[in-house]
Amino acid sequence: MQKPTLPKGTRDFGPEQMRKRLFIFDTIRQTFQRFGFQPLETPSMENLSVLTGKYGEEGDQLLFKILNSGDFAAGLTDEDLQAGSKKLTPKIAEKGLRYDLTVPFARYVVMNRGTLTLPFKRYQMQPVWRGDRPAKGRYREFYQCDADVVGTDSLLCEAEIVLMVHEVFRNLGVIDFTLKINNRKILAGIAEVIGVPGQEGTLSVAIDKLDKIGREKVLDELRERGFSDDSIANLEPMFNLAGKSISQVLSQLKTWLDSSETAIRGVSELEQTIQLVDQYGLVDSQVELDPTLARGLSYYTGAIFEVKANGVSIGSVSGGGRYDNLTGAFGVPGLSGVGISFGVDRIYDVMDELNLFPASAGQGTQVLVVPFDTEARSVALPLLNRLRSAGLSAETYPDMAKIKKMLDYANAKAIPYVVLIGSEEVQTGMLTLKNMVTGEQQKLDADTIVTRIGA
Amino acid sequence: MQKPTLPKGTRDFGPEQMRKRLFIFDTIRQTFQRFGFQPLETPSMENLSVLTGKYGEEGDQLLFKILNSGDFAAGLTDEDLQAGSKKLTPKIAEKGLRYDLTVPFARYVVMNRGTLTLPFKRYQMQPVWRGDRPAKGRYREFYQCDADVVGTDSLLCEAEIVLMVHEVFRNLGVIDFTLKINNRKILAGIAEVIGVPGQEGTLSVAIDKLDKIGREKVLDELRERGFSDDSIANLEPMFNLAGKSISQVLSQLKTWLDSSETAIRGVSELEQTIQLVDQYGLVDSQVELDPTLARGLSYYTGAIFEVKANGVSIGSVSGGGRYDNLTGAFGVPGLSGVGISFGVDRIYDVMDELNLFPASAGQGTQVLVVPFDTEARSVALPLLNRLRSAGLSAETYPDMAKIKKMLDYANAKAIPYVVLIGSEEVQTGMLTLKNMVTGEQQKLDADTIVTRIGA
């Protein structure tokens, strides 16, 4: 018989990994909730009419499509069958798997706009699927954790996102990170000022690679894409802002981009956002203003955010921004919003590499109760009950086995405490509590054991 | 533009539903963990070679299949294309969506058996997909919450499941339920004793409908399936056990099924399980022994469990049993286990119908901070910070709007407290706390507000 395998690009998460992942999920969820974001879940499948055309041509190709149920080929003509994959697909598959959480959110808003209270703040933590070529850190199924507020253009929402990013990472124990912010209007203004108005898209795509390929290659790319030497020379001030304080950057941008109304609006939005953040009294702000921050997605129209953990070479762990037109693709125009997305897989990698998971995040069963014989169960089973009632994770070795085997089981599962119950223990009521880490043993009564382990 | 729709049989879960669902998930997860079950997650997609043939022919048809990525039709011959859906499917789809959590669990155990510590206790809470015809209470995407222990045949595991079922429902607040238990060996013994040895499968299928179609129709069905009048007459004692105590049922079964070794083993297993449950000191046991309980799945070989909530006509909310051969289909024989599955959708329906959700389960944002003007933000924003640091869910209305509009927002979102901050409040530091339920207003300082709302 063939050994079973996993589809490529997918993963099982065993107990230890899962406990750590749950720590991340719980932390993000709690923080979202504290900021007043409300939970939403949408189906894994969406109609392809909802998904197609929303992620560009490449995205369409990466969508996983679901074969229609039943006799999907009935009614197909020879012509249909021989028309090739692209034309055949819509005839045999009308559903696809969720590609991100934004399009389903937009679909939900459109379908429920009659009953939604605006501004609507929702968070969503669910897997998404992409038929990308699997690689290190790139999977075909992975989780996104998004929080968005739509129906308002108040910059207070941007400030709240800055606050929330700090909260999430601090609650996770990732203290050393950088939150870069920028504003798309500044990029648009730069394009104006250097003489390529409207070409901020091309500019963004190139600048987005600054970290990876360096300044010279970015400029080469712009030259190839038709930017004049003058335009490129005019870009100079952009590269001289690194390492400066937020107020320095803001004042230099005001001077440089003075002639662009759009840029000045972007600068002012950033300035107000920073002021609002200050009003909250944010301690140890990790915010950095980076006018070269572009982020690929073309639908951002205002603030852009990106978070990287310092001390590891792992890509961004969080990102987002403001968009003007969440629901336009579904015929409902004008809904502005701002959102942030946390990448659980990368956050996991960061925390794993930097050893940031608290011990409790990896902890499974806290105590193994070991009766030496069936007699001893009369003491062991009620004790299990009591340990669990006290909120502890407790189990017993179910078979009558040699003591060594049961202790091996405790060690293999990294259970820190074992309670040993033999005939003496049954008679005296004094049970043996063994600390599996130190090896220390003590005779204690059941009450003391419950409080000791719970402490 | 066409209005977007949901694929049939799928659902969005908005904030209120989600909060209640999360209450169910959290409660089940915590209880699983307290009993020493460890979390596992498997991919949504499995290779069809893993899924096919595991759920019977009907199940195979209900599997959602995923169209291969890229140019799936390349290389197909005309013959392939025209062979019809059934023969074409394996050539264009090699993956399918998870149909239950048991087969992926078995696959995981087989793939990781070199490193797993046995007995292995895992829980898994993930959605599954079935291309069933949608109906009331039947969806194409729904969650399963399973806990299983494999690698032991100790009846202590059955007892633990009985305990855990009680814990889960009590922690949910579903006090009035019935946990029916039976043993497949008893059903096998009945088949022997009434003269149709080995036909307990047919017997089970018919008896399974007892609740729905009544005794006479069950007997009709057995007659149709070739059971003799003698056999059917011999079934009589089975119908005379309802409403009797566990010990009465056990003793009548012992007499009736005395001639079947298998049955007597089943009776003894049940007896021992009940004794073990008693040893734990389970208070207010809801266990009922029902020798007519069959449950459809043919892979059960020992104990069978089924839970129904009393006072509502909603099907079983939980079920499970012991199986002998979890991994046989993957060429690894002999792994015995016992498991229990909780149906979140039905539990939700029960709790909703009986009004059992605690108020906290539906609660979103706890307090809305309302600054009347931008000045007031200097007080409002730090207050938001403090409320959140105290673990409260707090938000502000982001736009400068009329007070009525902001209070309407609080009411629409069922936010119980609002803090109003105008110029007087900024000057005096005494803020207005409004209870949105009673309408009561009080002037309090920030400290008092934080502790008052947190109480």
Automatic annotation (TrEMBL), chains A, B:
One of its GO terms (biological process) is histidyl-tRNA aminoacylation. InterPro entries: aa-tRNA-synth_II, aa-tRNA-synth_II/BPL/LPL, Anticodon-bd, Anticodon-bd_dom_sf, His-tRNA-ligase, HisRS-like_core, HisRS/HisZ, HisRS_anticodon. L-histidine binds at D100, L101, T102, R130, Q144, D148, R295, Y299, Y300. It catalyses: tRNA(His) + L-histidine + ATP = L-histidyl-tRNA(His) + AMP + diphosphate + H(+). It is found in: Cytoplasm. Residues 1-371 form the Aminoacyl-transfer RNA synthetases class-II family profile domain. Pfam families: HGTP_anticodon (PF03129), tRNA-synt_His (PF13393). Keywords: Aminoacyl-tRNA synthetase, ATP-binding, Cytoplasm, Ligase, Nucleotide-binding, Protein biosynthesis. GO terms for molecular function: ATP binding; histidine-tRNA ligase activity. Its EC number is 6.1.1.21. The keyword Disulfide bond does not apply. PROSITE patterns: AA_TRNA_LIGASE_II. GO terms for cellular component: cytoplasm. It comes from the Bacteria. Belongs to the class-II aminoacyl-tRNA synthetase family. Homodimer. NCBIfam families: hisS. This is Histidine--tRNA ligase. The lineage of its organism: Bacteria, Pseudomonadati, Bacteroidota, Cytophagia, Cytophagales. The gene is hisS.
